[in-house]
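pls design
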């Protein structure tokens, strides 16, 4: 549980520490004052009695009174000093208890899951109700549970613990995957800070869990969609020159793991002209002369095979920094498919054109296309038939039967058609 009030109010550990310092100071002050009083009393009380008493009997009586006064003053002085000491200790204890209760209530009522951890044994000391609900275990089961039972990746756990031990007193933020009681994986953001040591002296750690499961699942779905679409993303900070590439971008450009290089070093045009055009457009985009980037860039892929990348980007201002952000999509197969479709369409058009049988395509009972053989049957050029109404090409008496056949209502029809000139 936290021992420091984030608003600046001292926590119970600070109150107790201050009380201990004041108690030690007062414990030293009491004997010093008593010693000083005793020395002064010894030095001056006898001289005062000798001046007041002239005979032995009177001196004896005064000596008795002096002893009684010494005891009384000592008792009064001890009472006053010890009363102040006890009053301060009790007041500090009350403040510590009130602060402890306040922090306990904050710990219990906090909506964020959190638990305290023993840094030596890596076991949970206590967990709040939100953590019990989030992880699915009752609080009594979480107490004493090893953190490694929740943290799926043992190597990440070891690295996080080593980092905390190497940098004590500093807050730490980590992303981790926890396993709930029902076996579900919960992706969490861990925010941790040191706590005062336990009564036994063991260091402790306060961990706050922020659920990032939905965000991580959305990120994975986005990554899957990007992989299916072969769509990568990139970002360039114009102030620092730093670049960031998503995993799909690395795959598309065969960029190995490690520090990200400059964008123009990753996207290298297949020829000098294409690369120079890319550099020029990026410079114009960075200066604001170009509103957005839209470029088909041929690049050399793995094995020297040429690939076609569709590069998009725009200039943005975020928190006073100018950045370039965009996407890269591999459209090699798409362009090849379009080219093949275009070739097949041309082949089909040529096949229809040389077909010896008449072929006509209608749209809303008007001629949309007619091949030369069909146009010859009507005694016209193919271009002359385009746009002609069906009613002008068929005998009026046979038009209903032809319409029924076109709608699939009749199995067959033999309408009489009109040639050019009637």
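designed seq:
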């Amino acid at each position: 549980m936290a021992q420091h009030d984030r608003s600046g109010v001292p926590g119970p550990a600070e109150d107790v520490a201050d009380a201990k310092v004041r108690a030690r100071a007062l414990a030293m002050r009491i004997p010093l004052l008593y010693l000083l009083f005793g020395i002064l009393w010894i030095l001056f009380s006898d001289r005062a009695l000798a001046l007041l008493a002239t005979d032995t009997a009177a001196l004896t009586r005064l000596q008795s009174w002096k002893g009684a006064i010494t005891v009384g003053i000592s008792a009064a002085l001890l009472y006053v000093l010890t009363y102040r000491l006890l009053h301060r200790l009790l007041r500090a204890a009350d403040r510590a208890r009130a602060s402890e209760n306040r922090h306990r209530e904050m710990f219990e009522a906090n909506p964020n899951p959190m638990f305290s951890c023993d840094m030596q044994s890596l076991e949970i000391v206590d967990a709040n109700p939100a953590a019990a609900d989030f992880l699915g275990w009752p609080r009594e089961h979480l107490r004493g549970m090893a953190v490694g039972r929740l943290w799926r990746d043992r190597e990440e756990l070891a690295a996080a613990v080593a980092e905390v031990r190497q940098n004590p007193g500093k807050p730490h933020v980590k992303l981790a995957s926890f396993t709930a009681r029902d076996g579900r994986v919960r992706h969490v953001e861990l925010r941790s800070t040191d706590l005062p040591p336990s009564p036994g002296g063991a260091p402790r750690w306060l961990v706050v869990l922020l659920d990032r499961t939905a965000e991580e699942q959305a990120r994975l779905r986005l990554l899957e969609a990007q992989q299916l679409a072969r769509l990568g993303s990139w970002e360039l900070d114009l102030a620092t020159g730093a670049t960031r590439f998503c995993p799909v971008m690395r795959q598309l450009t065969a960029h190995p793991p490690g520090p990200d290089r400059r964008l123009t070093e990753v996207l290298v045009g297949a020829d000098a002209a294409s690369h120079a055009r890319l550099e020029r457009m990026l410079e114009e985009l960075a200066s604001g002369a170009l509103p957005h980037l839209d470029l088909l860039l041929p690049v050399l892929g793995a094995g020297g095979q040429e690939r076609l990348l569709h590069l998009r980007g725009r200039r943005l201002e975020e928190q006073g920094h100018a950045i370039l952000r965009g996407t890269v999509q591999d459209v090699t197969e798409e362009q090849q498919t379009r080219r093949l479709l275009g070739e097949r369409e041309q082949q089909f058009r040529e096949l229809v054109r040389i077909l010896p049988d008449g072929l006509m395509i209608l749209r809303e009972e008007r001629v949309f296309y007619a091949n030369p053989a069909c146009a010859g049957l009507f005694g016209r050029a193919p271009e002359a038939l385009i746009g002609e109404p069906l009613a002008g090409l068929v005998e009026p008496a046979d038009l209903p039967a032809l319409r029924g056949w076109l709608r699939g209502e009749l199995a067959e029809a033999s309408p009489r058609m009109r040639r050019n000139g009637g």
